Amino acid sequence: MEADIKGSQRKVMTVSVRPLRVSHGRHGIALKDGKTLPFVVTRQWSAPAGNYPERLYLVDPATREIIYEGPEQTELMWGLQALTELVTEVREPIPLEPGTYLLVFVLGGVKGGEFEVEAVEAPAEEAA
Predict the structure, then answer these.
(1) DSSP letters along 32-90, please?
(2) Residue 126: inside a domain, yes or no?
(3) Range 119-127 average pLDDT
(4) Do residues 66 and 18 make contact, with C-beta atoms less than 8 angstroms apart?
(5) What is the residue range of 107's domain?
(6) Structural domain includes residue 1
(7) For all residues of the chain together, what is the average pLDDT?
(8) How many domains, in total, are found in the chain?
(9) SS3 of residue 23 by DSSP
(10) Looking at the domain assignment, is residue 36 inside a domain?
(11) What is the pTM of this model?
(12) Helix and strand element counts for the chain (H, E)
């Protein structure tokens, strides 16, 4: 019997993006003076077991221009039946305007998903 495995078996199942500091918000990317404040990206992969290079990208949805390319890291995937959670802290300020962007995830050279994320100005009194 043959398994029906059309398409990629490398998929991001869930994503959450939040500022590193709760005072900057609970969701999305907080901005101050046209640059990102530190934020955390958590995602859960479903992929065949093994070690893969993984990377995330922040992309302008209108132009498809890559605004930020995260570091490539080799990650151990647990397998298709057990989601593997990965967390990346982005601490470097990235020039960014308020708006909607895409987070694109790549595992072993295969795109595993893209998700919208909002970038918003942090409240002035809280962005210090």
Answers:
(1) ETTEEPPEEEEEEEE--SEEEEEEEEEE-TTT--EEEEPPPEEEEE--TTS-EEEEEEE
(2) no
(3) 76
(4) no
(5) 11-121
(6) no
(7) 90
(8) 1
(9) helix
(10) yes
(11) 0.86
(12) 0, 10
